[in-house]
Design goal:
About 50% of the residues lie in helices and about 15% in strands. Strand 2, helix 9 and strand 3 form a beta-alpha-beta unit. The protein is globular and about 95 Å long. By secondary structure, it is an alpha/beta fold.
Length: about 750
């Protein structure tokens, strides 16, 4: 039986906060003494500055730098590109070679950066130079951990093929309880999920609706569909408390959890259950994908070009963690063994990321958490930038709370060293938002404070930095299986950099100061809305960066005319280039913060099926071009079509044996065909079931798309600036719709 954790037993003294602020106080005291002219501190920094000006030979460029640097850089790029061409997707041999090249370049860059580029000639320059170096090391450390993890990246799809045979043949079919916790999701979203769960090809399952708001309408829905309904008095501890209340009231050997908006494909259980024949497997996580475009892609009008933000995590990061046993339980679309959840006393309560912490507890008990990289379900992405910000802030706060509770992956007993490293990389990731803010603000110091935080010659930049940078961005999308280019990843990071950085700082001070907030679902809007609250810090940075860009350009020209020292001139040049890059990226981020209208609650999908339409005294034949839960568009094979607008017609999808009734809203010409837009009459449950199965539950329907490469991403960024949001709409009748490829 489950004995939920008491909130008091979870919380630990906030030693982490004391350590972090202790380090900051010590650093602040040293900086203050330096500015005050303390003899001992000043002498130390003078000695360090001397060492920076006289670095070791290996931290200096060769004498014949021009041709040598060109040969070195071009050779490395050619080697990497040849490997990627020979192995379009990372294989064990190609991954090892590319990781080795990147590792050598990264260590070489680090040694040069720490031994030769710090500017410590004055306290002001020194503080900014060391601060920038520290922020770089945050990002660098995260990248180096990922390089280590990249050496192993298992793909369990072939194993799933073999194990699925045991499930379909009946050799292994344990009882399964499907739990769907719901709080305030609209009924039509939950109906879709329940029908999808019932459509899973697995007889030995029971579906439970866990209603945390005790809504009579949801109870009626569960009864109508034939699902079990559970509620509880109050909703203490949010989703974790809801699940903990339900688990003792169920009996299945395996437990599946779906969020209220996630619809599984028919083969979800067939593909996952077989792994639990291994008694050591405690939990299996599958990817999250979405049946609607995320707000960034939607707001830019590029929903068919840009991939969702989570794709990198599920295509790359989860696979890396699977290689060392550090998979993150993501809260939905996972299967777990009842014995595993009972062994840890239920879902962790008292913190926001109950899924993450529970997974850590299960791993610490000796169970395996594995990852199957197959899109076997789809849910609703956040439908506005504000909702996405709320969701990401909750994720950041919830993950970082692990530093303050007994589920801390760095200290909990039972984890292996590599598991701790994998979980530590996840914690470190959120601190990169602070680094991103620092990288946006640092170029301003060049102009407004006349600070030069980096001292490096052009030959050093070309010899140490350029090869590392070029190889890194070239291999970025290769490692993440074309989920995201480095340039687009930077744009995505900038959009929410300020709220996430503020969240990280708040968590370090008050880790449990903010409670659980559910991400809104089923939002609808008919107008453009600008997110001024999120945009304000970026607007300020944009204006100041534009001023500094103009000022740095003028200073560069003036310094060149006055024959200023080379180091000073090069420093200003770096500031000018840096400011120009930031201005470009912040400009894109500001465009993204304009939420475009979402006039329909229902997505339209590109589904092709033979169709028959009967209306009046005619029977028409054609094929579907797009479908939703509320309507359909059919391209007709006949040209002589009567005016059916406003006419009630019956239609049938021949391949699906799906009879429907609707009203013709419009007739239009699309290419060589006449098309009918038909709005369905209210559907019966018998009609809804096959329609939901067709739209959401077909095995293999959720495909992974490739993100544009780096060069294409650069062109795309300029296109975004030159042509702000041009919606790709198909206008038939009144309501614009966007067709999703599935």
């Amino acid at each position: 039986m489950i004995a939920p954790f008491s909130q008091r037993s979870q919380f630990r003294p906030q030693l982490t906060t004391l350590i972090l602020f202790g380090v900051l106080l010590i650093a602040g005291a040293i900086a203050t003494a330096w500015f005050a002219g303390n003899g001992a501190i000043t002498s130390i920094f003078q000695q360090l500055e001397y060492m920076q000006e006289n670095p070791p030979m290996w931290a200096m460029t060769p004498m014949m730098v021009g041709e040598y640097v060109l040969f070195w850089t071009v050779s490395l790029m050619l080697v990497v590109m040849l490997i990627m061409r020979a192995s379009p997707q990372p294989k064990p041999w190609s991954r090892i070679i590319v990781v080795g090249i990147l590792g050598v370049l990264a260590i070489r860059y680090l040694l040069w950066r720490s031994q030769s580029t710090l500017n410590l000639d004055t306290p002001l320059n020194g503080v900014f130079s060391l601060g920038l170096f520290f922020l770089e090391m945050l990002v660098f450390s995260n990248g180096m951990i990922q390089l280590v993890l990249l050496l192993r990246s298992p793909d369990r799809r072939h194993q799933a093929d073999q194990l699925a045979e045991d499930v379909t043949s009946g050799t292994y079919q344990p009882t399964v309880d499907v739990l769907i916790p719901t709080y305030n999701e609209p009924e039509f979203i939950l109906r879709r999920t329940l029908i999808g769960c019932q459509a899973m090809d697995y007889a030995n399952k029971t579906i439970y609706v866990l209603d945390d708001t005790d809504r009579p309408a949801i109870q009626d829905l569960a009864e109508q569909l034939g699902c079990e309904y559970l509620t509880r008095p109050g909703n203490q501890h949010a989703k974790a408390g809801n699940l903990n209340h339900a688990i003792p009231m169920t009996q299945g050997e395996l437990i599946v959890v779906f969020d209220a908006d996630f619809v599984p494909t028919q083969d979800f259980l067939t593909r996952t259950v077989g792994f639990f024949q291994d008694p050591n497997v405690g939990l299996l996580q599958t990817p999250q994908t979405y049946y609607n475009p995320d707000p960034i892609a939607w707001n830019l009008g590029m929903q068919d070009v840009l991939t969702p933000e989570e794709e990198v995590f599920y295509r790359q990061i989860q696979r890396l963690r699977d290689g060392v046993g550090g998979v993150v339980c993501a809260g939905t679309s996972f299967v777990m063994r009842r014995a595993a959840i009972e062994a840890v006393g239920g879902f962790v309560i008292g913190a926001l990321s109950e899924d993450f912490f529970t997974g850590i507890q299960i791993s610490a008990k000796g169970f395996r958490i594995i990852y199957l990289n197959e899109k076997l379900s789809a849910g609703l992405a956040a439908e506005s930038i504000a909702s996405q910000a709320l969701q990401r802030i909750r994720w950041a706060q919830g993950t970082l709370q692990s530093l303050f509770i007994s589920s801390n992956p760095l200290t909990i007993r039972g984890l292996r060293p590599m598991q701790r490293i994998a979980y530590f990389e996840g914690l470190l990731h959120w601190f990169s938002s602070i680094a991103k803010v620092g990288f946006l603000l640092m170029p301003l110091a060049y102009f407004f404070l006349e600070v030069i935080p980096i001292q490096a010659s052009a030959s050093e930049v070309f010899y140490f930095f350029i090869p590392y940078y070029l190889v890194q961005i070239t291999t970025f999308s290769w490692f993440n299986y074309r989920a995201r280019s480095a340039l687009l990843a930077d744009v995505y990071a900038i959009v929410l950099a300020f709220p996430l950085a503020l969240t990280v700082l708040q968590v370090m001070v008050r880790p449990f100061g903010k409670g659980f907030e559910v991400t809104p679902k089923g939002e609808q809007s008919d107008r453009y809305r600008y997110n001024w609250r999120l945009a304000m810090p970026l607007l300020i940075v944009f204006v100041l960066t534009a001023l500094s860009l103009w000022g740095n350009l003028g200073n560069c020209l003036a310094a060149e005319a006055l024959d200023s020292p080379v180091t000073h001139l090069q420093g200003l040049g770096v500031g000018w280039v840096w400011s120009a890059y930031n201005l470009l990226m912040v400009g894109i981020a500001l465009l993204i913060l304009l939420d475009a209208p979402r006039p329909s609650l229902f997505e339209w999908y590109d589904v092709r099926r033979a169709a028959k339409v009967a209306g009046g005294d005619r029977t028409l034949w054609g094929f579907t071009t797009m479908m939703s839960e509320t309507g359909i568009e059919i391209a007709l094979t006949q040209r002589d079509v009567p005016d059916l607008v406003g006419t009630e017609v019956s239609l049938e999808l021949v391949d699906e044996n799906m009879p429907l009734v609707g009203t013709v809203e419009a007739i239009a010409t699309s290419g060589d065909f006449l098309t009918l837009r038909i709005h369905f009459q209210p559907l019966t449950l018998e009609q809804q079931r096959p329609l939901i199965r067709l739209l959401y539950c077909r095995p293999g329907q959720w495909k992974s798309r490739c993100s544009p490469g780096e060069f294409q991403s650069l062109l795309l960024i300029f296109k975004m600036l030159l042509r702000p949001r041009v919606l790709v709409e198909r206008k038939v009748a009144v309501c614009p719709v966007t067709v999703r490829q599935v």
